[in-house]
Amino acid sequence: MPEAELPFRRRCRLVSESVVGVVGLAPAESTGLKTILVPTDGSQASMRALALACSIAKKNKGKVYVVHVIEVKRSLPLDAELEPEASEGERILIQAEKVADELDFEVEGELLQAREAGHAVVDEAIERGVDGIIVGVEYRRPFGEFQLGRLIQYVLRNAPCLVWICRQPVEERE
Question: pTM of the prediction?
Fold first, then answer.
């Protein structure tokens, strides 16, 4: 799809490999989040996190930014044309817009390319000066124990704002 026809702005940038220092939390007098960043991978958990963010921002007359990060292999240039991944990312962002539309809320979606998704999410939070990040997590037990992925661990350690984790309920299997 030509650049002019893309429904979302695509930015390619090298996110610093160094650890981002914690700047501080949202002001204590502000109990509601006004600007919220939601990273999405298209999963049900990330769409639930988006719905939660939209509900909160709507009550607080705020704004929600949705990002999908394409992780670029180190063997490729950061601005490599990754058409299948970009198409999938655009599909996910369109799905996110539909979730927001159902809640009568408008979100701003962006497709990013970076070496590591966690770095890109924290960088985006800093750049936009958001009050919080809401991340959706699927309940998975790959080795018998619930584990958080790399993105969430990095965001929890390095985000300069509040971070909420919205975990999917445990599916009961008989």
Answer: 0.77
| Residue in this structure with the two tokens 């963010």, named with its chain if needed | 53
Cβ neighbours for 76, distance < 8 A, ≥ 6 positions apart? 82
Contact 50, 64 (CB under 8 A): yes
pLDDT of residue 134: 96
DSSP letter assigned to residue 75: T
Query: Where do we find the tokens 């599916």?
Result: 171
Please choose, from the candidates 9, 48, 53, 51, the residue with its C-alpha nearest in 3D space to the C-alpha of residue 35.
Answer: 53
Average pLDDT over residues 94-98: 96
Strand stretches in 9-129, DSSP E:
9-12, 35-39, 63-71, 107-114
* Residues counted in the chain: 174
Predicted local distance difference test score (pLDDT) of residue 123: 96
* Full strand arrangement of the beta sheet holding 9-12: 9-12, 107-114, 63-71, 35-39, 132-137, 162-167
Structural domains in the chain, sorted by start:
3-15+32-167 (3.40.50.620)
103 Cβ neighbours under 8 A, 6+ residues apart: 51, 54, 55, 58
Tokens standing for 87?
């198409």
